[in-house]
Design brief:
Strand order of the largest sheet of chain B: 2-5
Helix content of chain D: 25-40%
CATH topology of the largest domain in chain B: Alpha-Beta Plaits
CATH class of chain D: Alpha Beta
Order of helices and strands of chain B: HEEHEEHE
Number of domains of chain B: 2
Shape of chain B: elongated
Largest sheet of chain B: 2 strands, antiparallel
Radius of gyration of chain B: 19 Å
Strand content of chain D: 15-25%
Chains: A alpha/beta (about 400), B alpha+beta (about 120), C alpha/beta (about 325), D alpha/beta (about 190)
Oligomer: heterotetramer
Largest interface: A-C, 50 and 48 residues
Number of helices of chain D: 6
């Protein structure tokens, strides 16, 4: 099929259309609005057979999603930033209720001060909630990962909600070419006609969401922990299945120019595009640098990450997110703790960049590289650094 | 092992679940539990008093049945063929609502509360 | 309409063994409500006494499918459940049968933190019945005031001190707020009138679209009275016209018999003094000295509301 | 390994459809199997405020996702912007600037010529064309015909742009034809 020109938001809406969820409960928030608007168009034009619940807040959006998913429906929603903050409480319950809700996120800075532009802190803030958390670099990835998210989340050994993040505006409002797939392909991929999976079944009544006291609470949480662990293999398998159908390769941890790399950038989302471009330029000048792109952030694929960093001298972790008062970045902490277990610990430099949508040019990525290498050559790790902040 | 709901857990199995304190690998998913399992939980030991029926004062008005908060009253046909309350002391918390609300016959209560012996 | 005895044949879907307080009116209410279930029914429950005490894992008193998510969102949860059933029924994934959906919330989960999600669900027109069991404070967490707490009541966050005599505000007119959403069915009820309550639940479930029932449910701990009096206190609420019983069907108000008797014979209307004296939460209105000023204020407010509701019901 | 990328920056005012222009360029380029990334700047600006949009086009796959700071081409949809902002900021040596104006001899247009003698300056009265052909002074489509011409159809071919316009206005009746007429006129009327 020839490519379609779509924004990131539109790509996600188109993907959700092919999946044809039973229920979409969502509340609009910039820069996610196009997803909700486009999906509303599909409902209005009869292109989907979905109950669209146009709720009065994100809190109710996620609550309605849990209700719908617990009832047995296939459920999709979408949010960002303050919206995710409002549904934060309920996000935790989505995973413990084992509801495979798919939530697309147009990542946006969190107030305050108020800002509507790209930043991943919003999605990283619920990293501990039991959600499977992924990021996309391009609109094509956003499209593909949205479809795959349903298969991963709904797998009987997983049954967890899945978040797919795209950087606000940089992807959400940017047009790129996306190679579409057919409804039939998606239907086959998701296992053909979906059977009823009634959980609130009047013929087989159960109670869900009970008060767990000291005697059972840890056991309930351990189930979510195990489901997260089990999801790793399912994610890998799902990515492979998708590749068989579309030829497009996906890995939880992606690499670029890593075969002979001595140094590596680590990042997530659209920033990886600029990193690649900088790497091309650096390589042209003889630098042995590569990129590790974390596509799946939770569960954390530590082994896959370690395999890539076996022979690496220095790691430059660059994230469009921040954590006040922490020893480093949010992603950076995962990277560091993974490296702690490896036999040869490389040097590490951590950067926070691009908060609130601030652009980071390709030449800045090169500067980040040069600065880091200088430090590594002096035999030092570089302390957590906010790139581009005026003093 | 795929996670499942407890739709086919029998009463016997549920009793094991509680007495053996099952671990997370055995427990159904999503903190779910089979419907109506509270019936196995004794709240009768909360009671300091217990109701006693004085059948000749009972008019089979059913009020005690509707007001009992604890499903501790069932209406059972007596020797007179009329329905009278029977108290399930496995559940009864001794609140005394039934006795208070009992209209009785000619001002004489059909249910009175007595100290538990 | 069936008689009370006939209702007694209906199955109760709320078992014993729950851990509500001895003499809890919410327990009586829940039992009566489930007697009205005559179709496949699903219950969504907001966090609160009823939820916590009826479902301490792995025990549940509920014999129908039951779901709890959080405190402030049970209307939204019910919205999602309804939407999913509609979609799955349309797609032929589940049996083509109607499933009744009942949502329970306390006064905290309804008047206060859950009001937004309730309003949203009513506006969207989901087909479900919301039952607010109002015991006049956050009883689950230790008797903190809610906007449903009556005037002058002593709670842990509106304590009767040496200067401030309990809650300074009158009860939020929640039923009026719900009626303003122009939903097809709104009613008030008390567990002291089981036939009336069960009828209303059935009626609320049978209408298409949202239905709402406000149940005055007493609380032995928070309102402070002997457990044996819990039903009597809700009866007093009706007799003093603090909780007039009526229904609003498609905007038409009808007064129900227990209140109608008072409307037609004003001598039957009890002064609120009887309601207040029966409860420890109003003790400061009588000791160390009787606060007739506050009791009069309270009475005037109740009288005004009673006249309003009589006028609306055309009696 | 340098990829040949054409960077375009479009200037206009909020409400004039600058975003649509950038999207149309991307949609047309995609019809020719090119690789694209096109997006507007987004701020709190409402109708009337000066805004910009970007389109990045290449025959080869590229990954870059930054805004455009050193454009090869600048398109100015609203002539009143010339005296208010520096539309030539970062414009590549020997680049191209296309301006919507009813008079190429106006002082602000001439000032750009003087300031940047190295760039190719083209003008077209897109407002007039849009008014006459579409009935609205919305220049976002009209000016793109001129862009095809001044780039010798190398970035977007006129007929491909027509297809993109048809796709975008599918099902909207005569609007599509009117826009296509406007594009064709600006293609013919643009002057360098």
């Amino acid at each position: 099929m020839s490519k379609i020109a779509v924004t990131g938001d539109d790509a996600i809406a188109q993907a959700a259309k092919l999946v044809n969820p039973d229920v979409v409960a969502a509340y609009p928030i910039t820069p996610q609005t196009i997803i909700v608007e486009r999906f509303s168009d599909f409902v209005a034009d009869g292109e989907v057979d979905t109950e669209f619940v146009c709720v009065e807040s994100e809190h109710s959006a996620m609550s309605a999603c849990i209700g719908a998913s617990t009832a047995g429906g296939r459920v999709f929603t979408s949010s960002a930033s303050a919206g995710l903050m409002l549904m934060y409480e309920i996000l935790q319950i989505a995973s413990s209720s084992r509801t495979p809700i798919v939530c697309a996120i147009a990542n946006r800075a969190i107030s305050g001060p108020i800002n509507i532009h790209g930043e991943q802190t919003d999605q990283l803030l619920f990293r501990d909630s039991g959600w499977i958390s992924q990021f996309a670099e391009t609109n094509q990835e956003a499209y593909d990962q949205t479809i795959m998210a349903f298969k991963i989340g709904e797998h009987p050994e997983v049954l967890l909600p899945v978040a797919v993040g795209i950087d606000g505006f940089i992807l959400s409002h940017a047009i790129e070419g996306v190679e579409p797939v057919t409804r039939e392909l998606v239907s086959d991929f998701l296992g053909g006609e979906r059977k009823s999976i009634l959980r609130l079944d009047p013929d087989n009544p159960v109670s869900i969401g009970l008060l767990h006291l000291q005697d059972y609470y840890m056991e309930a949480r351990a189930q979510v922990r195990d489901a997260q662990q089990r999801s790793k293999q399912i994610i890998i398998d799902t990515f492979k299945d998708w590749q068989k159908l579309t030829g497009r390769e996906y890995n939880p941890i992606e690499s670029y120019q890593m075969d002979d790399a001595e140094y590596a950038f680590v990042t997530m989302g659209s920033g990886a595009g600029n990193a690649r471009t900088a790497i091309d330029e650096l390589r042209a000048n003889g630098e042995k640098v590569g990129l590790i792109k974390v596509r799946v952030y939770r569960p954390w694929f530590g082994n896959e990450f370690s395999t890539l960093t076996k022979n690496i001298k220095g790691i430059i972790s660059v994230e469009r997110a921040h954590s006040f008062g922490s020893p480093g970045g949010i992603l950076g902490q995962d990277v560091k703790s993974t490296l702690f277990d490896s036999k040869q610990t490389p040097y590490m430099a951590e950067y926070c960049y691009g908060l609130g949508g601030r652009d980071c040019l390709v030449k800045e990525w090169t500067e980040i590289y040069n600065r880091s290498i200088q430090g590594f050559n002096e035999g030092e790790n570089l302390p957590y650094f906010w790139w581009g902040v005026r003093e | 092992m795929p996670d499942v709901l407890p739709t086919d857990v029998s009463d016997e199995e549920f009793k094991k679940w509680v007495t053996e304190k099952w671990g997370y690998k055995k427990l159904p998913m999503a903190g779910s539990t089979p419907a109506g399992t509270a019936k196995f939980f004794r709240t009768g030991d909360w009671a300091a008093k217990q109701p006693r029926l004085i059948v000749e004062n009972c008019t089979s008005c059913y009020k005690c049945y509707f007001y009992c908060p604890d499903s501790a009253i069932t209406m059972v046909a007596g020797e007179d063929g009329k329905a009278h309350p029977e108290f399930d002391m496995f559940y009864c918390k001794g609140c005394g609502v039934c006795a208070y609300e009992c209209p009785g016959r000619k001002g004489e209560k059909a249910i009175i509360m007595e100290d538990l012996k | 309409m069936p008689t009370l005895k006939e209702y007694a044949k209906e199955k109760v879907h709320f078992s014993g063994g729950h851990r509500l307080c001895a003499g809890c009116a919410a327990g009586s209410m829940a039992r009566q409500v489930t007697m009205a279930f005559n179709k496949p029914t699903v219950v969504c429950n907001a966090t609160g006494c009823l939820e916590v005490a009826s479902t301490i894992y792995p025990f549940t008193a509920w014999e129908v499918p039951w779901l709890h998510v959080a405190f402030e969102n049970t209307s939204a949860v019910a919205s999602g459940v309804e939407a999913a059933y509609n979609a799955m029924r349309r797609k032929g994934m589940i049996k083509d049968e109607h499933i009744d959906i009942v949502a329970f919330g306390g006064d905290g989960g309804t008047f206060d933190i859950g009001l937004q999600s309730l309003s949203g669900a009513l506006e969207r027109g989901h087909d479900f019945l919301y039952i607010c069991y109002d015991n006049g404070a956050y009883m689950n967490t230790g008797i903190q005031r809610s906007s449903g707490t009556p005037f002058a009541a002593n709670t842990t966050t509106s304590p009767a001190g040496s200067v401030v005599p309990g809650k300074g505000q009158f009860k939020k007119p929640l039923v009026d707020i719900v009626v303003a959403h122009r939903i097809p069915f709104v009613a008030t009820a008390v567990p002291a009138e089981p036939k009336d309550l069960i009828e209303k639940v059935r009626q609320g479930l049978d209408v298409e679209g949202p239905a709402f029932i406000h149940v005055d449910a007493s609380c032995t701990r928070g309102q402070r009275f002997d457990p044996s009096l819990s039903i009597e206190i809700t009866r007093l609420a009706v007799q003093t016209c603090i909780q007039p019983l009526y229904r609003v069907i498609d905007g038409e108000y009808t007064m129900d018999r227990p209140s109608l008797r008072i409307a037609s014979d004003p001598s039957k209307k009890k002064p609120i003094d009887e309601y207040l004296r029966a409860q420890g939460r109003f003790r400061h209105l009588y000791k160390p000295e009787q606060r007739d000023d506050l009791i009069t204020l309270f009475q005037e407010d109740i009288d005004k509301r009673w006249e309003e509701i009589k006028a609306k019901c055309g009696v | 390994m340098t990829i040949n990328i054409i960077d375009i920056r479009l200037h206009g005012r909020g409400g004039q459809g600058v975003m649509t222009s950038s999207y149309l360029i991307a949609e047309a380029a995609l019809l020719e199997d090119k690789h694209v990334h096109a997006f507007p700047t987004f701020g709190p600006e409402r109708s009337g405020a000066p805004i910009a949009a970007f389109a990045r086009i290449s025959d080869e796959k590229f990954y870059m996702k930054t805004e455009v700071y050193e454009p090869d081409i600048v398109v100015v949809q609203d002539p009143s912007l010339l005296s208010q902002i520096d539309v030539t900021a970062g414009l590549q040596q020997g680049g191209l600037i296309l301006i919507n104006t009813n008079d190429p001899n106006k002082a602000d247009v001439q000032a750009i010529k003087q300031k940047r003698p190295d760039v190719k300056l083209a003008t077209v009265d897109a407002s007039k064309i849009a008014k006459e052909e579409i009935g609205l002074a919305v220049t976002n489509t009209a000016i793109l015909g001129a862009l095809c011409k001044v780039t010798d159809n190398k970035i977007i071919k006129l007929e491909v742009l027509e297809t993109a316009v048809k796709n975008r206005f599918k099902g909207k009746g005569a609007i599509s034809d009117k826009n296509i007429k406007a594009i064709n006129r600006s293609y013919l009327e643009v002057t360098i």
